[in-house]
Amino acid sequence: MEPLGVTASLATIIELAIKATTYLREVKYGSEDRIKLRDEIRSTQYLLETLKDRVDDSLTLKKDLASIRALTLLGGPLDQFNTALEQLIDKIAPKDGFARRTRSLVWPFKKEDVRALLDTIERQKSAFSLALQNDHMYCRQVWDQWQRLTSPVASHSRLSPK
What we know:
- This protein is mostly helical.
- The protein has helices at 3-26, 31-61, 66-69, 77-92, 97-103, 111-150, 152-159.
- The longest helix has 40 residues, at 111-150.
């Protein structure tokens, strides 16, 4: 996927994460489960925003982001996180009439459902974090290479007659 496509995918998923956390904040009951889901989604959202920034930067720096592009594969981490968010939103989004009024009174998830959602989100969050680390390691390698080429010793040895 091209960088602009990756940026669009990330922006869409970030919007879904914002929507999910907004709905979670509006649910009155659900105690710890609601808070755990909200916090996990928010921390993952931060990683997605950082990934989006890296992709945006890569457009101007003309840098390849293979590890970040790999996240966008069909059935990959972005796809799985998107699916988890859609399932969550489907259960907690406002409905019409009576269902809308009772939504804030009834937590629609069982403990095992919450655990499954958290597990999915945590796995994808790990994949996003690894992609960022891979990108950082690549940047570090480029920086080290540039430092070696521009250091005084390297400059001197290239200019010295043989």
